[in-house]
Each structure stands twice: as C-alpha cells, then as structure tokens.
Amino acid sequence: NRTKHIRNFSIIAHIDHGKSTLADRILEITGAVSEREKRDQYLDKMELERERGITIKSQTVRLPYTAANGETYELNLIDTPGHVDFSYEVSRSLAACEGALLVVDATQGVEAQTLANVFMALDHDLEIIPVLNKIDLPSSHTEEVAQEIEEIIGLDCTDALQVSAKTGLNVEKVLEAIVQQVPAPSGDPDAPLKALIFDSWYDSYRGVVVLFRILEGTIRKGDKIKINSTGREFDVTSLGAFTPEPVQYKEFGPGEVGFLCANMKELSDAPVGDTVTLAKNPTQDPFPGFQEVKPMVFCGLYPVEPAEYEPLKTALEKLQLNDAAFHFEPETSQALGFGFRAGFLGLLHMEIIQERLEREFNAKLIATAPSVAYQVTNTDGVVSIIDNPSKLPEIQEIASLAEPYVRMEIHVPNDYVGAVLKLCEEKRGIQQDMKYLTSTRVMITYELPFAEIVFDFFDKLKSVTRGYASMDYEVIDFRESDLVKLDMLINGDVIDALAVIVHRERATRYGRAVALKLKRSIPRQLYEVVVQAAIGSRIIARERNAPLRKNVTAKCYGGDISRKRKLLEKQKAGKKRMKKMGSVEIPQEAFLAALKAE
Ligand code: GDP
Ligand code: MG
Fold first, then answer.
1. For ligand 1, is residue 137 a contact (CB within 6 Å)?
2. In this predicted model, what pLDDT tens digit does every residue of 513-549 receive, in sequence order?
3. pLDDT-based confidence at 202, cuts 50/70/90?
4. Which residues contact 345 (CB under 8 A, 6 or more apart)?
5. What EC number(s) would the UniProt record show (predicted)?
C-alpha cells in the first residue's frame, strides 16, 4: 500500500507569522535544500515576492523524511498564497491536502487571516496542527496564545508545538507531528483517474505546468489526458515532482502530488479547480467544476509615451499568461490616449501587477484611480456591469445603480474598538457583529461598500489602531446605492481618466478634496489653471492656480551651478511622467494625489 507513507499538508498563517521561514527550515531538515543552495524563503520564487514577503505562486515540494520510527515518508508540502486576494487559490491548495500546520506568531496571537485560513481548512476536513512560532523572542507569550487558539478556534492546544522557525528549535518535532497526526490519503489505483488541478502556470520552455493531486487512479507519462470542463485532450509529455528541483517520475498513484506538462499553450487549458482524467477511461465523478476568478478592482493603465503602447501590450500579455485572474482590454481615453483597462482580484493584486510591469518589463505607466465594478440598470430595464466610471450612461438613462459590498472581519485589541467602529461608520459600514474573542481581543464584523475600501481603508485602519488591527474580507453582493458620477475638469475640459463614481453624500467633500490636491500637485504653468469638480453640469468645487512667471532656477541664490543642474534634471525627469490633459500637463503624482484625496 503506497499511500500509507504519504502525507500531504499545507502551512497556514496570518501574514508575517512565519510560514515561509518554517517552510525553509523543513526543506533544510529533510535535506531538500543543501547548504549551498540555502537562502531565505526558498519557496518565494520571484524577487518581488521575497521583498514583499508574500507568496503569489504556490509551489509544491516533495520531501523524503525518515521519521523517528525508522520509516521513510513522502511529505508533500503545498505552499499556499497567504492573502485574501487569492483566497480561491488558497482553497484549491487546501483541497489537495489532508492536514495543515497552523502557524501562529506567539508574540502576536490569532489574527483575522489566521481565522479565515483555519475556517477554510476546516471546510476541507483537514487535520490542523497548531504551531506556536517565534518562541525565541522574549515578547512571546505562548500560554496566552495557546489559550487564545483554544478559545477562538476550539483547537486543543495542550500539546501545541512551540518552535522558532528562525533558529530551527523544535522544527523536527513538527515533522514528527505531521507523520503521526496527518492522515494518510487513500484511493483505488485501478479506478478511473480523478486528479485535481490546484495550480498552473505558464513556463516559456515547457508551456503550461499543471500541479495536480490524485484522488483515484494512476497517471503515467505518455497518457492521453482529458480536462473535464473543456473536454480537450492532451498527451502527457512530462511528469514529475518538485524536490524543489523538478524530477521526472514514470507514474503517480492515489494521494500523490506532482506536476505534468502536456503541450498546453494557455492557462485556460488547465484551470485551477478543474479535473484531470484519462481520455479512454474518464471518471464519472469529476470535481464540481471550477470557479472563474472574477476581477473586482479595475484601473486604466496608460503608457507615458505613445510609442510605448506596443511594448506595454506585450508586457501585459506576458503577465496574463501566468495569471488567470488578471484581465485587460484596450481602452482609449481622451486625456491619456491609447491604453488598457485592467482588472484585478483586489488591491494587493493590482499593486503587485503594477510593480511587476514597472520592474520586470521596464514599463513606464500612468495608472488611473482604482474603481470597483458597478451594476447599472437602465431605464429600459437592461442590467449591465460597468468597470469604468467614464462608461456610465447619461444620468437620465439610469434607473438605478448598485455597488458591491464586502463582509469584513476585523480583529483588534479592545482599546481600539471605538476607533474602528468610527472608521467603519464613516465608510458607510453596517455593523453585523462584535464579540470578545478573549478578554482583550475583539472581533468586529461589518458589511461595507467595496468602493470605500478601495480608497484608503487599510491605511486608515492601520493608523487608527497603531498597526494592531488585522482584517479579512470577501465580496458578498451588489446593493442599490445613491451613487453619482463625479467629473473633474481642468480649464473646462472633462478629464475622463479622473471620473469617479461616489456616493451622493460624499460627492461634495470628495470633489473639493480632489480639486485641491490637483491644484497643489499640478505644477504652476505660464497660464491660469482652473480645476473643477462637477456632477453632470453642476459645479461643486473650484480651485485655481495663478500663472507662473518665475524661472524654475530662480530660487537658487548665487551661482551654485550643480544645484541648478540638479533642479533642471529633476524637472526633466518629472516631465517624462507627465501627460497632456486638454491643454495642461499633469504629473502621475496628481493621479495618486487625487486617489488619496479623502
Ligand atoms: P510569512 O508571511 O508567514 O511567510 O512570514 P515569514 O516567514 O516571511 O516571516 C515574517 C518575519 O518573521 C520575517 O522577518 C522572519 O525572519 C521572522 N520570523 C519568522 N519566524 C521567526 C522566529 O521563529 N523567530 C523570529 N525571531 N523571527 C521569525
Ligand atoms: Mg511568506
């Protein structure tokens, strides 16, 4: 019985609680990474991931481990993305496991994403092993945190492992716990193949690489496989496991985890959540289909120079190859020219893509303010989703407007409850629940318009709680709201790229704030610049920049040539990132300022 020695597990944790560090130690102990290859956070492949300390693309590693009982086990560590934006991917990765290590930072305790991840793991019936991390730190308080886990999650923590992923202390015990507590998988090797696709990505040499977990049946190199949702068939050209280097295997049976390549050209050939089966003897019981991940946050992406349009398009296409959740389509703006409308899962996803475009593809970008998708009901009864405020029909054609709402859970020490409630109320939130998790920690549940969060909710939440709050959210539904389209005008021209949809009660304050920010961030020109905010034809705010007379170097006293030169160079660099809007040049900073206006 081959499955007896297989253990499939994930590590779940709130961000920064030590998931990647623990994974590194496990790789070292099992000998998967030699001293020479060792570097921090081996599993976070991309440079960007390492810098941000999050894992975007999950990777599974197969690790041989000889336990204290003398037997050798096949451990499959499945690395899951750790952020709410990627929750569908987290859920598929967990579906490939029988157990999960729940890492909780013993200096911090249970946080919002700890809980969200645990609930997902419980949904998949996983055996959960609590691991208290960072016990090398004097500020760790393992007893309280263990009690917190018991009270909040209901997990027995009497024998909870206490480790330091950093120093490696007690990490060996974690491996023993996996062997003893995580159930071995089961399944009939002779049944028709039923394998779950829990991750896939595009590799320029190998085409699409599919990570799968077999429930039943056997897969061999050379097999003709069928992808359940599309019915398309492919020949398996490469079959193997990451150790973490890719190693070829001839076959895999029930409970095993591996990768395959089959000359697939696009991610849509192997969607996450779909079933792989054999063409000649397909399973009658595929997984219940896959969920298409829909973008929730949108923004315009424009090249700074028109000549950069094609390179930008190529860069976007390349990114999309590897990110099924990232969408884009061409868009034209009167103000910004030819560009793209891009859709993302959430704000973090958006930031990551913008950064990768600038870094990996050297793209010079202007990104417009992010917006959510709105549901518009026209007077003739037609319902449509609009992802760009400037595409909104004329006011008289709109019967009603609805906006997406999220359900948000915020964990916070009780001292900050008042501040959090105040913030949520300001953001048009509707309180759902508030309960004490422990004598000092409170969980607050709100329903909030997603649009309010897209602006600056996280920054505000962090600042009003001095960084002590953690949160988790999911989009729940569309709700009718009193929303209006707010236009920004510069010297009488409507700047389409700056149009936003806002709640009517917010419109005046928002319009004033944006107009002021724009006025301040648009460098003064040789002519007068008037900034206005308007709802339809009604002007609700107005700001003015008087014409400029002085030379930019005029404030340099005396003959400091190098300083003058620096100033001029700075001005030149600034120009590169400017766009002509109507008759006025607007720097990228003005967009960002407009964004943070509230
Ligand atoms: P992740 O976001 O859960 O993957 O967390 P990381 O593994 O990136 O760890 C977050 C930070 O905590 C990093 O700076 C780690 O070096 C640090 N860290 C992780 N484990 C320990 C530990 O056991 N002790 C100490 N002192 N620091 C740790
Ligand atoms: Mg990490």
1. yes
2. 889 988 888 878 778 889 999 998 899 999 998 887 6
3. confident
4. 85, 86, 293, 295, 296, 297, 325
5. 3.6.5.n1
- Is the beta carbon of 53 within 6 A of some atom in ligand 1? yes
pLDDT band at 186 (very low <50, low <70, confident <90, very high): very high
pLDDT tens for residues 366-392? 888 788 999 999 999 999 999 888 888
Distance, in Å, from the CA atom of 169 to the CA atom of 163, rounded to the nearest integer, reads 5
CA distances from 424 to 4, 14, 420, 460, 513 (A): 50, 22, 6, 10, 20
Q: Is the pLDDT of residue 43 over 50?
A: yes
Q: Is 472 annotated as contributing to ligand binding?
A: no
Q: Tell me, rounded to whole angstroms, the distance of Cα 99 from its chain centroid.
A: 24
Answer yes or no: is 135 a known binding residue: yes
**How many helices (H) and strands (E) in the chain?**
13, 34
At 88 the pLDDT is 81
Question: Which two three-digit tokens encode residue 148?
Answer: 């917190």
CA-to-CA dists, residue 409 to 144, 272, 433, 443, 474, angstroms: 22, 27, 9, 7, 9
Give the tokens for residue 40: 């921090």
Binding site membership of 17 for ligand 1 (Cβ less than 6 Å):
yes
Q: How far apart are CA 388 and CA 331, in angstroms?
A: 10
Quick check: CB of 12 below 6 Å from ligand 1?
A: no
Is residue 579 scored above 60 in pLDDT?
no
Q: Give the mutation target among 10, 14, 21, 52 for probing the ligand 1 site: most ligand atoms within 8 A of CB.
A: 21
- Residue 97 half-sphere exposure toward CB, CA atoms < 13 A: 35
pLDDT at position 229, please?
A: 92
Beta strand pairing status for 161-162 and 127-133?
A: parallel
In whole angstroms, give the CA distance from residue 228 to residue 470: 39
- Tokens for 302? 């424009």
Compute CA distances 270 → 198, 200, 233, 251, 426, whole Å. 10, 7, 11, 20, 43
The ligand placed nearest to the CA atom of residue 24 is: 1
What pLDDT was estimated at residue 549? 64
- At 87, is the pLDDT very low, low, confident or very high (cuts 50, 70, 90)? confident
- For ligand 1, what atom is nearest to the CA of residue 167? 23
> What length does the chain have?
598
Task: State which ligand 1 atom lies nearest to the alpha carbon of 164.
Answer: 23
Most confident range (mean pLDDT) of 87-91, 191-195, 242-246 is 191-195
Q: Is the CB of 117 under 6 A from ligand 1?
A: no
Of 260, 264, 338, the residue nearest 305 (C-alpha): 338
pTM above 0.80, yes or no: no
DSSP string, 168-191: -TTHHHHHHHHHHHSPPP---TTS
